[in-house]
Structures are given as structure tokens and as C-alpha cells.
């Protein structure tokens, strides 16, 4: 019995050993297969990464080569130089072949020239050969700082005599919405220069880097209203330029150039003629909200409705609410515009304008005469707009009555009796003389020429007109510095109040009464 049991146990043990051997063999084979699979996968991954790296290197090298050969985000001068270089190459090839014909040559250019005819500069467009483009010297104009002299009137007269020596951007005598294409190209040459244009030469926007301009225009060829209205239209145009991504410019030469008295502060608005040369142009007249432009600002994309490279806008309209309500620009508004119209105007004007040394010195000299810098009592100012009178027959309406100023004199007398000095700005010499008699040495005025700046168009005495313009700017600048300010029915003092920036001690005179102003 026992030998049988031992034999059975041995058989079972041998079987178990065989199973163990088989299991070990199978596991070794499995592990070898796994290792082989991992090695193959690893080799494939390494080969793939190497191939991707080589492909990325080739693509990066190709991209860098393409960037070097392209005009990536060109400025206006870079684009002009590239355009001139490409067109010149075409011209040289045709000259070598002896086949240059200005009439048939699609690369023939038109260049802008500016000619002086007494006080009016007229834009003329004349054809030139392509080869002349290589000699064009694009030099940016620089504004000269005017140094004051002892006599302010004589100083300004000297400045005005040099008026016709400078060249400004001028509007040709055409319809307000007419299109003047300064430069036209064939589609083929335009594509070669990085943009595609249609037969009219208007850019279709395929090149987002093409510099476009929006320029406020007041050159005397058409009315552009008084100084306060101009300020309103100018700042509105700046807002439109901001939301459309266009470069903002100012061309105000009536009755003389604005840059004699104000210079760019934080925004370079002094666009030169070379900046806009060889660009398509449109002129828009939106005075008193006439025409379609003001209505379009409520709903359309300006660049789609007006695709030209350069848009000149003549306007005296407050476009603030139209732009702010336009769905195309809700996300493009500057933060300043979110605080309301008065705040936006004040801050935008500060960003745009800085008095020239000439105007600043003139203002400081006058304020020193008013004992402003060492005052111990409030400096009180009043603007009295009379409107149509024997002194100002070209004005549009009558604003106040010279014989109904009693309430204003009583208001000012209370401050004079307490030791304050009074500054009076007015469009009527009789009002000025009345104040001098009432307040004596406490009365102050600039004593300058009284005129409406927009009523001097065609005036033969441009020196007198420019002198009157300076005194108007000086008057408003002083109004912005006052501790107590009385405005009138005029955009002139209304804008001064906005620049002053507070309703504290702000009053308004109208219909024979002085009332407190509670909001700007």
C-alpha cells in the first residue's frame, strides 16, 4: 500500500514541476515579446519626434525667410519706400527694353503738389514718370516754436507775415463727398506691393497694416463755425479715428494755422503732405449734421462705408453719442468715453492740445497783470456773447441784449466789493467799455481784436484776422483758469467750462439772469 502512495505522490510532484517549467518558459517568452514591443514603439517615437523636429525647423526657416522678404506691419514710410522700389524696378526693365509709354504704362504715378496762390493753397495733381519716384525726398515737417517778444501784437504780426512760407494739406474745390484719388495703380502692381485694389485705386482692406487717416478739416474754403464749434467737431473726429483705428490729424488753417498756438501733446495730429501722398482721399462735409455721415455713425462700419485711405471731415457736430451707440464700436471705445461726454471732452482735449510757448507766455503775462498768481480772493470771469450787432453784423443770431446786463453787473460787483479781480471776455466793445467804467482797476480784458473766427474767410487783412484768432484763444484759455466762471449762450464759454472741468462756482447768464449750473 505504501509503495503505491509514494509512487502516486512522485507522479504528482513530477507533474507539478513540469507545469512550473512550462509556466516559467511561457512567462519568459511573454516578457521578451513585451520588451520587443516597447523597443519598437520607442524607436518609432524617437524617429517621429526627429522627423517633426526637422519639419518644424524647415517651416520656421521658411517663415523667417518669408518675413524678411515681406513688408510685415509696415509704417506709411516703409510702405511708400517698398512701393517706390517695386515700381522703379518695373520702370527700369521697361526702359532697358525701350518700351516706356506714359499713356499706356499702368505703373505711371500721380504725385501731389502744393502750390501757393496768395492766401489759398490749392492741391493740384499732375502725372509724373515712374523714374521720378526714386528721387522723392519724404521729409516730415517740423513745427517751429515761436518765441515771444516784448510787444505781443507786434510779435504775432511777425509770425503772420511768415504764414505763406509754410505748406499745409489743402482741399481741392470739389463736392464734399467727392472722391479724389491721388494715386491709382493697376491690380497687378498693387498685389505685388502687398495689397489689392480695384480699378478706382481704393483699398479693399486686404492688407490690415495699411495706414489710414481721419483728418479734421478747416481750411477756409467752406464754413466750419466758431472756435467752440470747431473744438466740438475736432474732438468728435478724434473719437471716430480712435474706434476705427485710423491715425488722427488736424488741418486747421483758417484764419491762420492752428499750430502757431497749439501743438500736439500726447497724440501726434500734425499729419504732413508726404504722409498721405499716393493715397485715395474722400472729403466729407458734416456741418450741422447735414448729409448722411452723422446718421451713418449710428449704425455702419465707417471703414466699410468709407474705404478710402484718407478721409477729411469738416464738422461742428457732437458725434459722441452716435459713436458710443454704434454696435460696431461698443468694444472699441476708449475708457474715457465710458465716463460720459463732458469728461471725455476734457480729457481728450488735454491729450490732443498743448499751448505753444508763444500762447503760454502770452497767457502768463496777462494773468500776471490780473494778479492771478498771488491772489488772495477768487479770480472771477464772465463771458458775454451778444451776437449780431453793429460791430459783428455777420454773426448768425442775437444772444443777449446790451441793455439788459444789470443782473450780471450786480453779480460781479459782489465779488469786486470783496477784493476780487474780474476778467471779461466779450464779442462787443460796448460791453467791454461798460465793465471798465463799473469796476475800474478790478476790470481786466485782453484788449485784443474782437471778431468771429469763421467770419474772416476771404478777409484781405489776414494779419488782423490771425491776431483776432489769437486773442480768441487767449480769452478762452484764461476762462479755463477762473475760480468763478459765468458762461453765456455760446459754445465758446461752454467748452471753456468743460476744460475747466467742474461745476463748482459755475454760473450761466442768459435772458438777463444769472443762474447756478449744476451739471456740465
TrEMBL record:
Protein name, as recorded: Uncharacterized protein
Stretches the record annotates as Disordered: 45-69, 136-206
Source organism per UniProt: Littorina saxatilis
Keyword Signal found: no
Presence of the UniProt keyword Membrane in the record: yes
Membrane spanning residue stretches: 12-31
Biased composition regions of type Polar residues, renumbered to the chain: 141-161, 172-192
Composition-biased stretches (Basic and acidic residues): 45-67, 162-171
Superkingdom of the source species: Eukaryota
Keyword annotations of the record: Membrane, Transmembrane, Transmembrane helix
Amino acid at each position: 500500500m505504501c509503495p503505491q502512495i509514494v509512487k502516486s505522490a512522485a507522479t504528482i510532484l513530477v507533474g507539478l514541476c513540469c507545469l512550473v517549467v512550462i509556466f516559467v518558459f511561457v512567462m519568459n517568452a511573454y516578457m521578451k515579446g513585451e520588451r520587443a514591443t516597447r523597443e519598437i514603439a520607442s524607436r518609432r517615437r524617437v524617429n517621429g519626434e526627429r522627423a517633426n523636429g526637422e519639419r518644424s525647423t524647415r517651416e520656421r526657416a521658411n517663415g523667417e525667410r518669408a518675413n524678411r522678404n515681406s513688408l510685415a506691419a509696415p509704417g506709411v514710410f516703409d510702405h511708400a519706400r517698398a512701393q517706390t522700389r517695386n515700381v522703379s524696378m518695373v520702370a527700369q526693365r521697361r526702359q532697358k527694353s525701350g518700351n516706356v509709354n506714359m499713356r499706356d504704362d499702368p505703373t505711371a504715378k500721380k504725385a501731389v503738389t502744393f502750390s501757393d496762390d496768395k492766401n489759398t493753397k490749392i492741391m493740384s495733381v499732375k502725372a509724373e514718370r515712374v523714374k521720378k519716384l526714386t528721387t522723392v525726398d519724404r521729409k516730415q515737417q517740423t513745427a517751429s516754436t515761436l518765441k515771444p517778444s516784448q510787444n505781443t501784437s507786434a510779435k504775432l504780426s511777425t509770425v503772420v507775415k511768415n504764414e505763406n512760407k509754410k505748406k499745409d494739406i489743402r482741399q481741392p474745390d470739389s463736392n464734399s463727398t467727392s472722391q479724389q484719388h491721388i494715386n491709382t495703380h493697376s491690380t497687378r502692381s498693387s498685389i505685388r506691393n502687398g495689397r489689392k485694389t480695384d480699378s478706382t485705386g481704393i483699398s479693399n482692406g486686404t492688407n490690415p497694416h495699411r495706414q489710414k487717416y481721419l483728418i479734421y478739416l478747416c481750411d477756409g474754403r467752406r464754413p466750419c463755425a466758431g472756435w467752440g464749434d470747431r473744438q466740438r467737431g475736432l474732438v468728435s473726429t478724434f473719437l471716430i479715428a480712435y474706434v476705427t483705428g485710423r491715425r488722427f490729424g488736424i488741418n486747421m488753417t483758417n484764419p491762420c494755422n492752428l499750430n502757431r498756438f497749439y501743438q500736439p501733446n500726447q497724440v501726434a495730429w500734425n499729419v504732413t503732405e508726404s504722409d498721405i501722398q499716393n493715397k485715395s482721399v474722400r472729403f466729407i462735409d458734416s456741418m450741422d449734421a447735414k448729409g448722411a455721415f452723422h446718421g451713418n455713425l449710428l449704425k455702419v462700419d465707417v471703414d466699410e462705408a468709407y474705404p478710402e485711405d484718407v478721409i477729411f471731415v469738416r464738422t461742428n457736430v457732437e458725434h459722441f453719442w452716435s459713436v458710443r451707440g454704434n454696435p460696431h464700436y461698443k468694444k472699441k471705445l476708449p475708457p474715457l468715453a465710458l465716463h460720459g461726454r463732458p469728461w471725455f471732452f476734457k480729457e481728450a482735449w488735454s491729450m490732443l492740445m498743448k499751448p505753444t510757448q508763444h500762447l503760454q507766455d502770452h497767457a502768463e503775462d496777462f494773468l500776471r497783470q490780473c494778479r492771478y498768481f498771488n491772489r488772495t480772493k477768487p479770480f472771477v470771469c464772465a463771458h458775454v456773447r451778444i451776437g449780431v450787432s453793429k460791430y459783428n453784423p455777420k454773426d448768425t443770431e442775437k444772444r443777449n441784449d446790451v441793455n439788459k446786463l444789470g443782473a450780471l453787473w450786480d453779480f460781479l460787483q459782489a465779488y469786486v466789493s470783496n477784493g476780487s479781480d474780474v476778467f471779461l471776455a466779450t464779442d462787443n466793445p460796448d460791453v467791454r467799455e461798460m465793465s471798465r467804467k463799473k469796476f475800474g482797476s478790478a476790470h481786466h480784458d485782453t484788449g485784443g481784436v474782437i471778431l468771429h473766427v469763421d467770419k474772416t474767410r476771404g478777409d484781405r487783412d489776414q494779419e488782423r484776422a490771425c491776431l483776432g484768432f489769437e486773442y480768441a484763444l487767449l480769452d478762452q484759455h484764461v476762462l479755463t483758469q477762473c475760480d468763478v466762471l459765468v458762461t453765456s449762450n455760446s459754445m465758446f464759454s461752454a467748452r471753456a467750462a468743460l476744460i475747466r472741468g467742474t461745476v463748482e462756482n459755475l454760473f450761466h447768464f442768459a435772458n438777463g439772469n444769472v443762474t447756478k449750473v449744476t451739471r456740465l
